[in-house]
Amino acid sequence: MIGKTIDKISLGDAAEFSKTVSETDVYLYAGIIGDFNPAHLNEAYAQKTFFKTRIAHGMLTAGFISTILGTQLPGPGTIYMKQSLSFLAPVRFGDTITARAEVVEIIAEKNRIRLKTTCTNQDGTVVLDGEAVVSPPKAPKS
What we know:
Elements: E1 14-20, H1 23-33, H2 38-41, H3 43-46, H4 58-71, E2 79-87, E3 96-107, E4 112-120, E5 126-135
């Protein structure tokens, strides 16, 4: 199974993925990447920070964009080439994050698409904003 090839993608095409971020998600992510910053894992420490509680890793949230690109738009076979990110608000344990990717440019001659990428929480607050460039899968040769 392959995702959408460039000839099947149009400007404005979009996809979303939602997930509620749990304490377990944050601890597993920390263990996988080795980022044990107490702002993510230690409630007593985090209560003294600007956010007053533990927050999820920004890159955990950014990973939800990768989920869209690799499974939906364009989908399986996509090569992730570039991502810019601005972290605009914290993601707290229990927040439901909706990642969204929307096609804003098609560069057919290079088999590339540029997408606006955002993550919002359950209150509609944009927690992450950015842009991705990917290479969609190519059609299998017959």
